[in-house]
Amino acid sequence: QMLASQVTIPILLQRISLGCDACAVWKTDKRCYASAEEQWTLQSLSVQTLAGLIENCPSVVHRMSESALPSLLRVVRCGMDFIQSDLIIADQNHPVLDAASNTARALHSLLDENVDLIETLIQQAVGSSSTQKTALPDVPTVVNELTALISNAKLTNTARLHACGAILSLRKVLVDNDD
Fold first, then answer.
1. What pTM value is reported for the model?
2. Do the beta carbons of residue 77 and residue 84 sit within 8 Å?
3. Which of 13, 10, 148 minimizes the C-alpha distance to 72?
4. Selection from 155, 100, 143 nearest residue 118 by Cα
5. Alpha-carbon span 125 to 107, nearest angstrom
6. Distance separating the N- and C-terminal Cα atoms of the chain
7. Cα torsion at 8, 14, 16, 22 (round to 10°)?
8. What are 47-87's pLDDT values in tens digits?
9. Tens of pLDDT along 95-105?
10. Three-class DSSP category at 93
11. Does residue 127 come out as left (phi exceeding 0), alpha (psi in the -120 to 50 range) or beta?
12. CA–CA separation, 149 and 170 (whole Å)
């Protein structure tokens, strides 16, 4: 299980990144809609698999947290851009909505009781973080992305609920650190 997740996670993160790279094309060229729908289906399945690994392999979570968080936040931004582009209808069951739900689930699972990651984000915010392989966002950036998910009425209730859970996970560690 450990070896499989060590191999699978980098592949998934690379796949997620490639899916986001295509986002700019989808926004500007509506002829790519069919391709975009297929890509969002693949993106959704990739993020769903990553969420499952996060939830079922806690020992791996701590090693991959710093690389997964920026990738997941990037999916949030790409998905929100796609949703705002009016390429999908509000009540349509589109793969981007599934991807948003799976991404919110993965973020919630990643942040849930992951004190090390959240403390790293806090250090990043105050500018005292050490040299890192991946540039991590600060806490306000993470909260802003999650708030965008919560406030978007086009998203499913599940996506919005997971985003709330992720914010509560952040808040719990922040409040515990103040004590």
1. 0.85
2. no
3. 13
4. 143
5. 19
6. 37
7. -150
8. 999 999 888 887 777 777 788 899 999 999 988 888 877 66
9. 888 999 999 99
10. coil
11. left
12. 15
Taking each helix axis as running N to C, give the angle between helix 115-126 and helix 95-111, from 0 to 180 degrees, rounded to the nearest 10: 90
**What percent of the chain lies above the pLDDT cut of 90?**
29
Q: Which two tokens stand for residue 172?
A: 């719990």
User: For the stretch 79-99, what's the b/e string if a residue is b when 16 or more beta carbons lie within 10 angstroms of its beta carbon?
Assistant: bbbbbeeebbeeeeebbbbbb
Q: Token match 């992720």: residue?
A: 166
Distance CA 72, CA 14 (A): 11
**157-178 and 139-151 helices, crossing angle to 10°:** 150
DSSP state of 135: P
Q: Pull the structure tokens for residue 85.
A: 């582009």
What DSSP letter does each residue of 65-126 carry, written as one string? HHHHHHHHHHHHHHHHHHHHTT-S-TTS--HHHHHHHHHHHHHHHHHTT-HHHHHHHHHHHH
Rounded to an integer, what distance in angstroms lies between the CA atom of residue 105 and that of residue 107? 5
Question: Which residue in this structure is represented by tokens 């992951």?
Answer: 114
